[in-house]
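Worked Example 4.2. Consider the chain below.
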Amino acid sequence: MGICNCRSLTYSPELRARWPSFLPREWHRAYPNVFDDADLKLALGQQPSHHFREWFVAVHLRSEHGACSLVEKYRPRRRPSKVHSRKCARLREWFNPAQVRTLREVCDGVGVQPPDLLARDADGLFFFVEVKRSNESLSKKQRRSHALIRKRLGVPVRTIRVRQSRTGAG
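Applying the procedure from the previous section yields the following structure tokens:
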């Protein structure tokens, strides 16, 4: 299947209307290798209008490209997160200690979170994804961190723009 090269995705207003009432639970059940209980709690938590786009892209990557994603909160820390322990463990399975340290150094050095998703496609190739609205730009710090990730880790960083269709199709 190879790394997803999509640049934009469109979702229907009807799909968006199902967030956060129904979709987080549906996707959590349908994609257990992508979303765990901590993801579900985050999606239903204090900012329920957030996270839809990241989850939408992760579902697309899984269903259309066979890619498994870590969605947000996978940032490597000196002491692994207890809440997001699955993501910390998966990151350490996918990346060796030097790569984990490099990702932490890049994020800490630039002062940003890592890209929204870290994905591994069906062929075992890794890529990061920054999810943006169609009219949203990368910040200067994001551009810098993405360049450093590409240079120091040799891992591609994709930006996928997500927008809502004007009609029910999409």
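The helical segments are 13-17, 23-30, 37-44, 52-65, 85-94, 97-110, 140-153. The chain has seven helices and five strands. Compare this with Example 4.1 before moving on.
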